[in-house]
Structure formats: structure tokens, C-alpha cells
Design brief:
By secondary structure, the chain is an alpha/beta fold. The protein has a single domain, classed as 3-Layer(aba) Sandwich (Rossmann fold). It has 7 helices and 6 strands, in the order βαβαβαβααββαα. Strands 3-2-1-4-5-6 form a 6-stranded parallel β-sheet, with helices on both faces. α2 runs antiparallel to α7. It binds adenosine-5'-triphosphate. The site of adenosine-5'-triphosphate has 16 residues, from α1, α4 and α6.
Length: 185
């Protein structure tokens, strides 16, 4: 199967994330999307508890979305988890699948600085989704990379953590946040 790898901290997961994943599946660009929840939140010290909450919320938000899977694959990889290491280890673990990297136009601009960026481009397909304010010239892309059109939602996890845009998370996630008093709720 063609698996799209969509990485992030998902702290917490919101409608921007799930709609993007669903859109790629509906457009048949990949067969499944695996949400690769990063164990390390660069903004703060990683904690196992925080990681499990983010995994649990991602599972709640994607219930009833059979082609989206939440993955804790990076839990067992060395930190910091480099994308190339994740992709190569996935390819070895699941030789029957073909892995495609899903990244935003914002990340694509910084991509040359990524660890082993050339190896990623030469070994894997990339789907680059649009982000407001980041324009990409299609002719500047390597043959393995393609721009995709997906719905744009004006929301970030930062908004949710700052008690804004509550309607942009699933009701189950909202309930989970309140029950566990996350983000000072
Ligand atoms: P934060 O506000 O904590 O920085 P975030 O909302 O950007 O978080 P991440 O966990 O960093 O969420 O998301 C993973 C990826 O999802 C990012 O690389 C980003 O490009 C993308 N993303 C974030 N918000 C949206 C959105 N509203 N629509 C589409 N993609 C998004």
C-alpha cells in the first residue's frame, strides 16, 4: 500500500490535521495516512505522560476514519527523531508498503536544512500541501515532490492551547482535554 507519513507534535490534534489527511485519501494520493506523533515536543521537555495524551487525543479524533492510523512508531527510535531515520526504519519494518512524506509548504522552505534532505528526496515521494503565505514554484521541485491542494483551516494547536478556536477540535478531544485538565482547562 501507499502510506503517507504525516508527522507532527499534534499537541493537540485539530481539524486542520484530520481534514488534510482525509483529503489526501479522498484524492487517492495515498491509501492510508499514518499520523506520526513525535515523542519530542521541541518547545518543552518530553514527558511520557504528555506523549500518551497526544496519542490518545489523536486516536479519539480519527475514530471512524478507517484509512487514518495513529502511530507511536517514533517512540522506539533514538531522539531527536530524524525523518530519514523514521522513513528508513519504516521501510525495513514494512517492506510491503511504499512510504510517502507529507509536509507543508512552510516546512518545504526549510527542507534543505533537514538532516539528510537529499537522501529523503532521492528515496521517497513527497506530497507538499499549501500553507498560507508560502508560495512554491512547481518547476523548482524535484521529480519526487508534488504540490497538493487540500482544505485550509485557520487553526493551530497553539490556538487550542491558548483556549481559542475550540470548535476546531473534535467533541471527544474537547472532552478528553477537560477530563484530564490539559492546557490549564
Ligand atoms: P503548534 O501550533 O503547536 O506549532 P500546529 O497546529 O502547527 O502546532 P503540528 O503538530 O506542528 O501542529 O502539526 C504538524 C503539521 O501539521 C505541521 O507541520 C503543519 O504544517 C501542519 N498543520 C498545522 N496546522 C494546520 C492546518 N490548520 N492545516 C493544515 N496543516 C496544518
Amino acid at each position: 500500500m501507499r502510506i503517507g507519513i504525516y508527522g507532527g507534535t499534534f499537541n493537540p490534534i485539530h481539524i486542520g490535521h484530520t481534514s488534510l489527511a482525509q483529503s489526501l485519501i479522498e484524492q487517492r494520493l495515498v491509501d492510508e495516512v499514518w499520523l506520526m506523533v513525535s515523542p519530542q515536543n521541541p518547545m518543552k521537555q518530553p514527558s511520557a505522560d504528555d506523549y500518551q495524551h497526544r496519542i490518545n487525543m489523536a486516536n479519539l479524533a480519527t475514530q471512524g476514519m478507517p484509512h487514518i492510523r495513529v502511530s507511536d512508531f517514533e517512540r522506539n527510535l533514538p531522539l531527536p527523531s530524524y525523518t530519514i531515520t523514521t522513513l528508513n526504519t519504516l521501510s525495513t519494518t514494512y517492506p510491503q508498503h511504499q512510504f510517502t512524506l507529507i509536509i507543508g509548504a512552510d516546512n518545504w522552505q526549510r527542507f534543505p536544512q533537514w538532516y539528510h534532505a537529499d537522501e529523503i528526496i532521492s528515496r521517497y515521494h513527497l506530497l507538499i500541501y499549501r500553507r498560507p503565505g508560502y508560495n512554491i514554484e512547481p518547476q523548482s521541485l524535484p521529480p519526487t515532490a508534488h504540490i497538493v491542494d487540500t482544505p485550509l483551516y485557520d487553526v493551530s494547536s497553539t490556538d487550542i492551547r491558548n483556549h481559542k478556536k475550540q470548535k476546531m477540535i473534535s467533541p471527544d478531544v474537547r472532552r478528553y482535554i477537560k477530563t484530564h485538565h490539559l492546557y490549564s482547562y
